[in-house]
């Protein structure tokens, strides 16, 4: 029994670094050294792509949540290949009109490998505190009452 607990702890330790980012109009959970299929990107194979729209970033000891994006956070991707998804059949029919239409669609995809997840500023919470301090230290206009 203790072996299974240790293996579950090891799996949680391997997920110490992940990020949730926005790309292709969707949000993806990115982990290092894993590949993902996203909508077709205008890039060649072996090209490097950087995502800067990071919504959440978790490392070993902290979680950074963006408003709406985390500052100085980047995800570096490498294009592995371009492919097409499975075919989806769309069938439209209008009852009592003898109108039928059968169409198919295959989505163009790009397979990418996550190379690294980095954050330039390790303390985004302190920067937000500095902003609140600046707001509080602004002198208020003094008006004389008559």
Structure, briefly:
With 146 residues, this protein is an alpha+beta fold. 18% of the residues lie in helices and 46% in strands. The model is unreliable at 1-8 and 122-138 (pLDDT under 50).
Give an overview in words:
With 146 residues, this protein is α+β, with helices and mostly antiparallel strands. Helix content is 18%, strand content 46%. The chain is built from two helices and ten strands, in the order H-E-E-E-E-E-E-E-E-E-E-H. Mean pLDDT is 81; it is low at 1-8 and 122-138.
Largest beta-sheet characterization: 4 strands, antiparallel
What is the distance, rounded to the nearest whole angstrom, between the alpha carbons of the first and last residues?
Answer: 81 Å
Helix/sheet category: alpha+beta
Rg, alpha carbons: 24 Å
Mean pLDDT: 81
Strand content: over 45%
Helix content: 10-25%
Poorly predicted regions: 1-8, 122-138
Q: Note the run of SSEs as H and E.
A: HEEEEEEEEEEH
The tally of helices reads 2
Kindly report the spatial arrangement of strands forming the biggest sheet. 2-1-5-6
Overall form: elongated
Number of strands: 10
């Amino acid at each position: 029994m203790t072996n299974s607990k240790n293996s579950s702890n090891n799996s949680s330790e391997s997920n110490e670094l992940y990020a949730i980012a926005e790309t292709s109009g969707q949000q993806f959970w990115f982990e290092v050294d894993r590949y993902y299929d996203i909508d077709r990107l205008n890039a060649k194979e072996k090209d490097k792509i950087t995502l800067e729209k990071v919504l959440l970033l978790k490392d070993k000891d902290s979680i950074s949540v963006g408003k709406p994006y985390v500052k100085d956070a980047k995800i570096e991707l490498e294009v592995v290949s371009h492919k097409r998804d499975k075919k989806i059949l769309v069938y439209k029919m209008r009852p009592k009109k003898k109108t039928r239409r059968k169409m198919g669609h295959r989505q163009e995809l790009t397979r990418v490998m996550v190379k690294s997840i980095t954050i330039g500023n390790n303390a985004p919470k302190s920067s937000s505190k500095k902003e609140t301090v600046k707001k509080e230290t602004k002198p208020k206009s003094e008006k004389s009452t008559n």
